[in-house]
Design goal:
Layout: H1 2-6, E1 11-15, H2 23-28, H3 31-44, E2 49-53, E3 56-58, H4 60-64, E4 70-74, E5 78-80, H5 84-91, H6 98-105, H7 109-114, E6 120-122
Parallel strand pairs: 1-2, 2-4, 3-5, 4-6
Helix pairs in contact: 5-6
């Protein structure tokens, strides 16, 4: 991103990282510091930055690359500092409360647009989401 800024090129980030790294590993790898540095650096860039939330944007890492002039989100994606499952585990001590947590977090594309946290919802064509891994064709 620094090179893009240096050469006057726009930056496009794709926000998809799920929150999957255990807390102890995050601390050992200084992830919080890396996210903070990234936030600071991106705020100082002079080139346009576009962030696209295209799946699970449920982590601090997603927020760490989400400083942008325009934030787009696919209509079925979500964007939050924590996943609904992680939030439910903390607040209700039960991951099964994830739907209740998702509602409280207001993380849907529609909610985020209404709150002014994203700039535009990008419609997805019918059948665009792949829910099972693709199998190679039989020869």
């Amino acid at each position: 991103m620094r090179l893009a800024n240096k050469f006057g090129l726009p930056v496009i980030t794709s926000l998809t990282p799920p929150a999957r790294i255990p807390a102890s590993a995050r601390e050992e790898r200084h992830i919080a510091e890396a996210i903070a540095v990234n936030l600071r650096e991106m705020m100082l860039f002079e080139v346009p930055i576009i962030a696209a939330v295209i799946g699970e944007g449920g982590s601090g890492g997603a927020l760490g690359i989400g400083v942008a002039d325009r934030v787009l989100i696919l209509e079925n994606a979500y964007y939050s500092v924590i996943s609904p499952e992680g939030c439910a585990a903390i607040l209700w001590e039960d991951r099964a409360a994830a739907p209740k947590a998702a509602e409280a977090l207001k993380i849907t594309a529609k909610d985020l647009l209404e709150l002014g946290l994203v700039d535009e919802i990008v419609p997805e064509p019918l059948g665009a989401r792949i829910t099972t891994p693709l199998k190679p064709p039989q020869i």
